[in-house]
Amino acid sequence: MSDSCVMLTLADLCSFLKKRDNYLVLTHASPDGDTLGSAYALKLGLKKLGKKVQVICCDEIPHKYDYFIFDHDCDFAPDTVVAVDVADIKLLGNIYSQFENRIDLNIDHHISNTKYAKRLYLDGNAAACAECVYEILDELGVEIDRDIANALYTGVSTDTGCFKYANVTARTHEIAARLYEVGVDAADINRKMFDTKSKSRMELEMMVLGAAEFHFDDRCMLLSVTSEMQQKTGCTGSELEGVAAMSRSVEGVLVGISLKQTGDTTFKISLRTYEPLDASAICKSLGGGGHKAAAGCTIEGDLAFAKEQILTAVKKALEEADAGSDTTE
Ligand SMILES: [Mn+2]
Q1: How far is the CA of 109 from the centre of ligand 1 (A)?
Q2: Ligand 1 centre and the CA of 22: distance in Å?
Q3: How far apart (Å, rounded) are the C-alpha atoms in residues 94 and 33?
Q4: Distance 16 CA to ligand 1 centre (A)
Q5: What pTM value is reported for the model?
Q6: Cα of 31 to ligand 1 centre, how many Å?
Q7: What separation in Å is there between the alpha carbon of 324 and the centre of ligand 1?
Q8: Contact (Cβ atoms closer than 8 angstroms) between residue 140 and residue 17
Q9: What is the Å distance from ligand 1's center to 92 Cα?
C-alpha cells in the first residue's frame, strides 16, 4: 500500500524498540489469541525494559482471555504506535481511519500484509505472530517469565489449532519448549481455548450443522451462520469464532466455508483449505486475503448472492487444481 514502508530485520527492529518509548499497541478487530497474546507479551516485555505501554482493541475482549490484563487508563501520551498480527490497516476495525499513516511499526506473519505501516517486521514462516514476538523479546534480552510465556503460548497454540495445522514448524515446537521451561500453563490454556464451549455455542453448532451444504463431489462444505441463528441461540460476537474450522473434520473435504451474517446484507466469509488449494488466493479474488490454509473476505448482498460468489470462486480453484494434477500425472 504505502511505498515508504521500510522492511526491518530483527536487529533493526530491536534497536528501534530500545530507542522509542510510550507505546500504543493495537490488535485487530474480533481479537483472537494470537493478536491478544502477541500484544500482551510485547507489553510485558517492553515494560521490563522500563517502557510505557498500553494495548487497545476496538472490540470487546472475549472473557476466555481474562488472564491478559489490559488496563484502560493510559497515564501517558502514546507516541509510538505498533500493530501486531494486523495484516491490513482495515482489520483494526472501526478505529482504523484514526490510525491511517500513523502506524510506526507493524509486527506480523501474514504473507498478505499490505505494508501500511512506516516500518514492518514480517516473518511469513512464523506460524503465529507470537513466534515473532518471542524472537523479538529473546533478541532484546528480556527474560521470559510465566506471564509472558502464557501470552506467547496462547498466540502460538491458537494460531496452530493446538499445534496441529500445517503451519507448525520445528521452530514452533522449540519456542513452545522454551515456554514450558519457564512454567507455562499450557494445559489450562488449551482447555480454555479448545475444550470448552458455552451452551449457546453448542446450540448454534447444532443449527449450523443441520443446515450444512456439500458441493463439488462433497469436496466443499459450506456452513451458514445467519442472524436468525445468532438471535435464536444467543451465540454472537466472538463466540462465533472457529465455525469454518468445523468443516475440517469431514473426510474428503478440501474446502470448508463459513458465511457469517454480520449485517442485513453483509456476510463475513472464512475459508479453510487443504493442499493444493490456496485459501488466500481464493479470498483475494473477492477482495480479502489471509494465509494459504486459512483466509477470509466480506461479501455484500443476500445469503444466496454471498453463497454464489464464494462457491463460484471455489469451483474455479478446484477446477484449476484438477487441471494441474491431470498434467502432472
Ligand atoms: Mn496470527
Answers
A1: 7
A2: 24
A3: 20
A4: 22
A5: 0.81
A6: 10
A7: 30
A8: yes
A9: 14
Distance 34 CA to ligand 1 centre (A): 5
Identity (one letter) of the amino acid at 110? Answer: H
Q: Of the residues 178, 194, 210, which one is the last residue of a structural domain? A: 194
Residue ranges in the chain whose pLDDT is less than 50: 328-329
For helices 170-181 and 146-159, the axis angle rounded to 10 degrees is 150
Q: Is residue 1 part of a domain?
A: no
Cell reading at 319: 477446477
Distance 317 CA to ligand 1 centre (A): 25
pLDDT score of 227:
97
H helices of 103-169, in order, are 129-140, 146-159
Measured distance CA(326)–CA(322) in Å, rounded: 6
In a domain, 60, yes or no: yes
Residue 57 and residue 116 share a domain: yes
| Among 27, 22, 60, residue whose Cα is nearest residue 41 | 27
Q: Tell me, yes or no, whether 264 and 186 share the same domain.
A: no
Q: From CA 168, how far away is CA 160, in angstroms rounded?
A: 6
The boundaries of the domain holding residue 176 are 6-194
Q: Sign of the C-alpha dihedral, residues 161, 242, 107, 143?
A: negative
Give the span between the Cα atoms of 275 and 282, in whole angstroms.
13
Nearest to 85 by CA among 47, 43, 13, 31: 31
Determine the distance separating the centroid of ligand 1 and the alpha carbon of 301, expressed in angstroms.
28
Query: How far apart are the CA of 326 and the centre of ligand 1, in A?
Result: 35
Which domain CATH number covers 42?
A: 3.90.1640.10
Report pLDDT for 3.
63
| Residue 240 zone, left/alpha/beta (φ > 0; ψ -120 to 50; rest) | alpha
Predicted confidence (pLDDT) per residue in 104-152, tens digit: 999 999 998 999 999 999 999 999 999 999 999 999 999 999 999 999 9
